[in-house]
Specification:
The protein is mostly beta strands. The protein has helices at about 145-155, 240-255, and strands at about 5-10, 15-20, 25, 30-40, 45, 50-60, 65-80, 80-85, 90-95, 105, 110, 115-125, 130, 135, 140, 160-165, 180-185, 195-200, 205-215, 225-235. Helix 1 (about 145-155) crosses helix 2 (about 240-255). It starts with a strand and ends with a helix.
């Protein structure tokens, strides 16, 4: 399955460009395969360089308001200088690595609202940059991430929303300039709890799992025990009952705070 989009038209008689993804479904740490096709126009045209990258639309806070900002968080050169001959087709295949920290955009076949991540194509033409449209990709959870998500569902939590925020989570292995938060509504047995926010920050060996409790109005109190961060190995996560682990932490914190 592939996506075809006209990315750019470079002046009268100029070449046109399409990027086609061979497969739009990927996981963090994987590779998205595709090709860039340049169709020559009525004249020869010099291309100085060709790049592909990944772009995310993230929330940025400032001046008491939130705005959306497009951030390119990886880029790869797939071609140096070359000439597109008039009427000829020039095809450049690519394999773009997906950073391990890339946010999840789809869970159990359901797209997460607000997650906008895709492949960008950029041409360097006569000392000018010509950027194309975004070819969306579907980023599925790693097995270790899926295990944590499944545990929340088994405990009765319901998905609320997801977003990507510019900033850094202290004490984690984060390298990207933004992070993802996945929010869940709490089930009735955790009666003093409104929701839990979940973030993953992974590398090629393990991931940081960051949880933050959001209490119901009137139940806020000082202290750090409503925040939890722990490490999960990408290859040895199966040895833990994550539903029991999460339930124990929630019960301990809730019991100390008399939330439930």
């Amino acid at each position: 399955m592939g996506f075809k989009k006209l990315l750019a038209s470079m002046g009268a008689g100029g070449a046109s460009v399409e990027t086609e993804l061979t497969e739009s479904n990927v996981v963090p740490g994987g590779v998205v395969q595709g090709e860039v096709r340049l169709q020559g126009g009525s004249v020869n045209q010099q291309i100085q360089g060709l790049n592909v990258g990944l772009q995310a639309r993230v929330e940025v806070e400032g001046n008491d308001q939130e705005i959306k900002q497009d951030i390119e968080f990886t880029k790869q050169s797939i071609g140096g200088a070359f000439e597109v001959q008039a009427g000829a087709t020039h095809v450049v295949p690519f394999g773009l690595e997906i950073p391990w920290e890339t946010p999840i955009t789809i869970i159990d076949g359901q797209p997460l609202r607000g997650m906008n991540i895709g492949v960008t194509t950029e041409l360097d033409i006569a000392r000018a940059l010509d950027s194309g449209d975004l070819d969306p990709i579907n980023v599925h959870p790693l097995p270790a991430q899926q295990a944590i998500l499944d545990a929340f569902i088994q405990l009765g939590f319901r998905f609320k929303a997801a977003d990507m925020e510019r900033g850094h989570i202290r004490g984690t292995r984060q390298r990207l300039p933004f992070y993802q938060e996945i929010e869940f509504f709490a089930p009735s047995q955790y009666r003093g709890l409104n929701q839990v926010e979940l973030s993953f920050v992974a590398d090629d060996r393990e991931m940081d799992v960051i949880l933050e409790m959001d209490k119901k109005p009137g139940l806020f109190g000082e202290g750090s025990d409503s925040f939890r961060a722990f490490k999960v190995g990408l290859g040895d996560f199966q040895g833990t009952d994550w539903s029991a682990y999460l339930n124990q932490w929630l019960a301990e914190v809730g019991g100390r705070r008399n939330w439930f």
